Amino acid sequence: MSVRVRFAPSPTGALHIGGIRTALYNYLFARKHGGTFILRIEDTDQNRFVPGAEEYIIEALKWTGLIPDEGVGFGGDQGPYRQSDRKEIYEKYAHELVAFGHAYYAFDTPEELDARRQAEDNFTCNFRTRTSLNNSLTMPAEATRALLDAGAACVIRLKVEPEQEIHVQDLIRGEVVFQGSELDDKVLLKADGMPTYHLANIVDDHLMGITHVIRGEEWLPSTAHHVLLYRGFGWEDTMPQFAHLPLILKPEGNGKLSKRDGSKFGMPVFPLAWVAKTPEDSFPGFRETGFLPEATINFLALLGWHPGGEQEIFNLEELAEAFSVEHIGKSGARFDYEKAKWFNQRYIMAADNAALAEHIRPLAGAKGYRTDAPFLEQVAVLMKERATFLPDFVEQGYYLFEPVRAYDDEMIRKKWNPALQPAFEALIEKVGASAPFEAAILEEEVKQFMHDSSLKPGDVLPLLRLALAGTMKGPAVFDMAAVLGKTETVRRLQTALAYFLGK
RNA sequence: GGCCCGUUCGUCUAACGGUUAGGACGCAGGAUUUUCAUUCCUGUAACACGGGUUCGAUUCCCGUACGGGCUACCA
């Protein structure tokens, strides 16, 4: 049987970076086994629905290159893939489960249950308490019928039998055992007619032929209920295999990575920016911070998984080839932003100049800079070994696009000397006469000039660099000069000389 | 509180009874580059603790501690 896996997020807001990792592992598993990767939208909670969240999820998957084979926005013949479009299906199955004797109608209102929770410690709906609640188990059949016919608000709950052990074979954790007596009677169908996660999940996974459920560890405790549902429906023989992923933890301190950590540590924890009504609720993503999607994926893949061996850099195909559930770690992985930056730097360095130029174009355009490909490719060549993020090309390397904004006065004080003026003027003349204006030739000429005028490289080169870039950081001086062109180079030398003299 | 899961350098991890416990990030030092970065060397640092099992435990079992998750008509 061919592998079918699904990524099933809820459109309750921006998709967390941990969600992307879950999608990634599902994607890799599907690719590895020649299977199918499905996107299913789990929007059964109408109260938590957030407009734009579904679009965000789809865009995030597209950005990272984790393209589903089937799903909302991606076609497929096992749909609909949005749970709110499948409401009647769940209702039918829920009632069927009641008929089978594995579920029951419960008429207790949320308020009544809350009252019991207040009054009793550890109150929960289970085999013990259901005998003292209002449901089709405790009420005469006619009374239940009457309430149902009258349209009384009610939910359908799973009837968990206490005298049983539920064994879950987890691909990552091995066998996990739960006692039936410890499990609560989970709501399957809510009063509004919508299913809960538990019901919808099992019905959809079964109907969609899902073979492996790869999801976050937070689902491990409820997996026992899920097994009971498969059993109740008589689907246990085709029940998918489970793999519960370790969570992504905060960079420091306790707990799992949260939205707050993003602003707290000044780093993205979402793939894409989220634009909300207020700035406080908006935040940038990996994309806007200037991460390459390939680097983001590589970083995420290794957060909780490693194939063994000493390779660190993997593209998507290599990841899919190397992927195996057995190598997924069991413990939570701390989000290591330094490592994420390292990956990005590596990917920028290794990137094709033309591709980098395309990434730089919108950033340059936003600042009103030149955006022609030949020029941007030259910028890429000069800056790629110095950039951690994409915006670094136009921010750190701004002087390649516009005149020097500020000079490093400290350095000028060290290197400039009024006695140098004649030599500097002669140098400007020399540079202005250089042709063709190329880095290697220019370098040769300037070296000859230094030799002829008995000047040391340390006397001249730093000043040249200061004149062109204003700072001591940056690409080789002659490379910069070549990219700037003769006219601009000479202009900057003159401007700088005037500035030096004014000091 | 109850249930479930976990625990190797600061961080991500390798190891699947016998290793000088390996790699990567970070950090520190050095070389190259008369800038920065890159590159290349070197160094730093870990088997949570206590019992077993075994000729031998980081590795298997039990317990403790610590961490995490779940405990909604949320997913």
Describe it.
- This protein has 503 residues and is mainly alpha-helical.
- It has helices at 17-32, 53-64, 87-99, 110-119, 141-149, 197-207, 223-233, 259-265, 286-289, 293-301, 316-322, 337-350, 353-366, 373-383, 392-395, 409-415, 421-433, 439-452, 457-469, 477-484, 486-502; strands at 4-7, 36-39, 70-71, 103-106, 155-158, 165-170, 174-179, 187-189, 212-216, 241-245, 248-249, 333-334.
- The strands form five sheets. The chain has a three-stranded parallel β-sheet. Strands 4-5-8 form a three-stranded antiparallel β-sheet. A two-stranded antiparallel ribbon has the order 6-7.
- Helix 10 (293-301) crosses helix 12 (337-350).
- The model has no long low-confidence stretch (mean pLDDT 96).
- It binds one RNA strand of 75 nucleotides through helix 4, strand 7, helix 6, strand 12 and helix 12.
